[in-house]
What does this fold into?
Amino acid sequence: MTSKGYEWVKKFDPNKRIFVGESYLLAKRIMDLTLVFLAIPVWVPVILLIMLIIFISSPGAPVIYTNKRAGRGGKPFLFYKFRTMVPNADALKEKYKHLNELEWPDFKITNDPRVTGIGRILRKTSLDELPQIFNVIIGDMSLVGPRPTDFGPDAYTLWHTERLDVLPGMTGLWQVTARGSVNMDERTRMDIAYMERASIWLDINILFRTFATLLNPRGTV
It folds into this structure.
């Protein structure tokens, strides 16, 4: 496990949680929706501006990228993000599979040739993730939780499936401590460490650290 993330999350004593079980889930849902709707004057103009830039840079191509990802209980849901790659990026995965820096089915290439110019900026700033706000509103995701993988539970080993016990999140423990530098095993261990200590206070701390990470980006999520 990445020690930085694990040592940080150990500071949160699970015995001191105010909300547990269903009460925590309800409080978490209320917090998600409250923060999302209070921030509408901020994120709506940003989303509209990015949509316009992507459209102008590649007319006729989709602005939003969608694919199926594993949600709570392994249930697939339609996942939204801004398109940062060429339209046929998924079909090109096999072509560039030999450049993959992580263990398959994880896929990451430094300076990925499929990424567009505007896409590199969006990824560096994590602004490509903004459309997942709609996933939060729908209830498929939370603001904080394990990041949904772009491969299904059938590719998981048995112990990896524990991360499917909660809603996936727009951000999470490994995003604010390791970013894109960890493999599936390390990410899952940190996700489980988060789940064992999940609380509103921990979620708030991860959100604050997320904003700090966005101001000083070190990689892509």
Q: What stands out?
A: The chain is about 45% helix and 10% strand. Residues 21-38 form the longest helix (18 residues).
